[in-house]
Fold:
Amino acid sequence: MTASPDTSDHPVIGLDEVVHQRVRLGILAIGHEARRVEFGYLRDQLDLTAGNLSKHLSVLEAAGLIDIEKGYEGKRGRTWVTLTPAGDAALAAEISRLKVLIARVEEKT
Amino acid sequence: MLSDVRALTGQVRRDQRRTWVALSVLAAATLVAIPFDLLFMWVRCDDTGCMFGRQGLFYYWPAALLIAYAVIAVSYIRAARDRGVGTRVLPYAITGAVTAVVITAVSLAAAAWFPDNPPFDGGPMPYWWIVLDRLVLPWGLIGLALLVLARLERHLALFWFTVGYLVLVLLVVPTNEGIHVPFVTDPALQLRLSTVLPQLIVAAALLAGAIGFHRARPGQR
Structure:
């Protein structure tokens, strides 16, 4: 998951299903750029329901790719998501594989 | 999928930025500096010419820069937290604090060394020296720190604004020598007033940038 793509294999082989899913890739991309991102921001940006987003966050948390921190600001509950080092590495590997895949497709056309 | 990732990261970057706040604070700091500069400047004139020292720069700018970058950092952090994202402003604030140390060190070194060892034996100074002198003045260092902010935020518009700003303060506006004020015949008063216009120009440039970035900011969600 964290290794750089091996160009001898077809890049599709190395795609990680946990990361490759569109919404989860979006969560990782936003989390990487924002460093720390709040649940409501993710929900708005990815245009998801709270329940749907929670499911995807659980998958990523179970895979060790994100940390979830719950707290309060005043009386308002807020949930913050931070990428773990494994999450950063998984995102970088996924993007590398996608770029290799695109390059292969463009080579053949 | 890659274009989705790019679009999402671009949106996060836009939501993290508070460029107009940074430029407004720095413009305000530049404007407030003017009375300090005038108040603490010493001028001694005799038959051979005038000598002057801008002590106000030394008294005002180190503290002003520390306060300005602290205000900018707090503003960024609060806005980012309200939006629900983290921020990248801390390295910029640290760079700003370092510039305050640089100004202090350069001022102390110049005050200790140059009176007995005038650069180039008191003769005409080469252009590169004049530009270097402008670079270590507060307005040049503000530009250098803005380059750091542009890099941190991957903000191309801020990068080009800063390049233009640095050209202005290093090559166009004589921030170290002053601009001659017409109709003022008293040499001491001329020296004092000549420092005002460059600072007003720098403040106007920063303020224009602040207004431009404020107008161009993404709509509030």
Observations:
- Residues 15-216 of chain B form one domain.
- The interface with chain A takes residues 1-2, 4-5, 8-9, 11-13, 15-16, 83-88, 221 of chain B (CB under 8 Å).
- The radius of gyration of chain B is 20 Å.
- Chain B is about 75% helix and 5% strand.
